[in-house]
Amino acid sequence: MIFAAGLGTRMRHLTQHQPKPMIPVAGRPLIDRALDLARGIKPPVIVANTHYKSTVLHRHLANSEVVISHEQPKILDTGGGLRQALPLLGTNAGPVYTMNPDVIWRGLNPLSLLQKAWDPARMDALLTCIPIGRSIGRVGGGDFHTDEEGRLHRTGDLVYGGVQLLRTDRLAEIEKTAFSLNALWDLMAHDNRLFALEYPGHWCDVGTPEGIPLAEELITRHEI
Fold first, then answer.
1. Whole-angstrom Cα distance, residue 47 to residue 154?
2. Would you say domain 2-220 falls under CATH 3.90.550.10?
3. φ, ψ of residue 32 in degrees (nearest 5)
4. pLDDT at position 154, please?
5. Structure pTM?
6. What separation in angstroms does the CA of 212 have from each of 50, 162, 187, 201, 208?
């Protein structure tokens, strides 16, 4: 599931005529870079949700294998968007990979790392996180810290990288129509089933125009 429905307000003029996932970084739209990672693990289906300036993204993806989950009249946020897309993903219980396309990864495919580290006996969600010292373009502090077992807890020096593997059955417990996946994470954390995978490479946030040159510099680095 690729989250491509956002309004992109932090990108200012760059999203006046296009959705944020269509913004080019080093000559390629962010959505195409996200699709490279998704295709790298050969999932049975790839779904992208759309809302803002959706016609542009629909046209771009028209000849691809991507299935569209269009959100109207209102945007549903990550949790509501994932729940709407469940029939297209072919599962009501997960696990499902989700991706934010407005980031750049330098190193191993984070989806492949999640695939290898996933332990359904212990985990309801496994979030790829980056120590703030290896994150680029991040404004503000971290999101989480881990305990000795690798479980996630709020606040700390780990930044959520926007890629995760999670079960989806508990989405049915949330009454709101539009809601963030933070609500689902809170349920999982309460049951000690929210875990982190620390990414060994580098990561850049491309949520603002200032992040684009930083991401392009990261892409051209020889070292990882």
1. 29
2. yes
3. -70, -35
4. 97
5. 0.96
6. 22, 17, 34, 18, 7
